[in-house]
User: Fold this.
Amino acid sequence: MPRLKYKPLLYTTTMRNPERLKFMLFVLAKFSGQTLDDDLATKIFGETIRYGLYRPTKKSKSIKQKWSTTPNGVFSEYILNDEEVLFMLQNNPQKHKEAGFGWGFPSRFATIYDLTKELGLAYFTPQKPIVISELGEHLLKSIEVNVSGEEIQYEIVNSEYEQQVFLQAMAKSQRKNPFVRVLNDNIPLILLLQTIKLLNTDPKQNGAGISRKELPLLIFWKDNNAKDLYNRIVELRKLWGYNPSDETIIDICINEIMEGQYKKFDPQSIMVDYVDEFIRKMRITGLISLRGAGRFIDINKNELDKVEYVIRQYSNYKHFTSEIAYFNHIASLDKNLIEIKAKPVTTTNAEQLLTNWLNQYAWDTIKKELAILASGGASKDAVLKFIAAPTRLEFLTALAIKSQIPNVRVLPNYSCDDEGLPTSTAGGNKGDIECYEQQKGILVEVTMATGRQQTIMEVWPIERHLTDFQRDRKAQCVFVAPSIFSDSVRQIQFVSYQSNGERKIRPYAIHEFVDYLETAQQLYTDNAYNIGVGHSSTNNLAAESPAPYGKN
Assistant:
């Protein structure tokens, strides 16, 4: 066995976006209880390709079309058939080897599903049955997935479950564990929380937590002594304030913390890549807020009760030498932690927090970020890049309305931290954003879905939400997506016909809604309900949303 070494924290190089795990786990759970061997590992790898969750580069024309309507990291809109899966396996051999697994596909399976083991969601090892843990089952309850013919339909039904699962996993996740085998000995989330608490109680510090520039120290830190880490950060601040050079931070990490043992490094990785991945994993717990335009990472004051419970319950931990013993520890569901509720955000505070963000995001920036979402691109903004695309669309849409029509009351229903940044999308039993203009209401519903998934999973829930919303007021709904699918328009027309025109739903592609806001005097309008009459979403639909591979 190779000698253990100190290493910087990097959870995975294959699944940087933690929101992907629920989709990957759905595929793995289909094989729960089956004994794992190389043949089954290859089959699971093929199923991961079948659902579009792993997309090798060499693909046929039909596969390109099936994958063209959805971004990487989520289910494709259309499932691959057996011939197409076989084509992908034959034309994309994997030059890869993991201990205990055969060369190629079995080893690639082990690599892409490895994080499910380390975070206590699923356990697999050769010649043993695949196990989905209690924690994993809880995560699976956050989504509903149906396959009808060759169409994949999914819906996020309990977004709060995902946050609960990652909080519990990160609260127990030890650096020195049998899966990773490093000498570093701490629980990163707890080390972060304890260090921030020490910094924030020091009146000589700024009370905003730990800076992004200082996070590499924590990522390299060798033990769980938060006081020593706090003292080193204070010493650093005395010399360089809050803006030390990258070279200063790298020198501390490599030559001081690692004592020169860590030879291979890339400055970009230490200062950017490792930090970004760490923030994503920590922020999905709901306990972390971003301050100062993303320059500082702090404790979310709405979750102080959970923070105190996590520190009290998990800061004193025992070590494990057995993989299965460690897995059983991290995989259990702490129902006491689930029962601790966040401090509620009043509607007045929620609106004020939203308005505050207009000081950072001017209209041109909001437009640019919405265009990035519409094109499926990745944000480079220091704050927005840490918010998952569906949640980011809710946040930016609310900001856009408040920016351009300031007299409208804008009340988003997403969960947010103490800065007003969303931590998850609005729950499934209510609309995304509620707007009020004098005595009229406008329910704003947004989605990143663009094709048949949009039609099947969005329009009927919107109709239900609008029915509930307009019970005691004159109301209508604005529906925003990267593009509006032709079937969605027809279904909206049907809803309007069935309700004698009372269910007024106005669909907009993102760029169309931006155009509307730039010229509109009010959000509620009597001139835009008639789908197909003077509405650009419909008039331009044929050009924007062609039916995939010849289907109507």
About this structure: Residues 529-552 have pLDDT under 50 and may be disordered. The chain is about 45% helix and 10% strand.
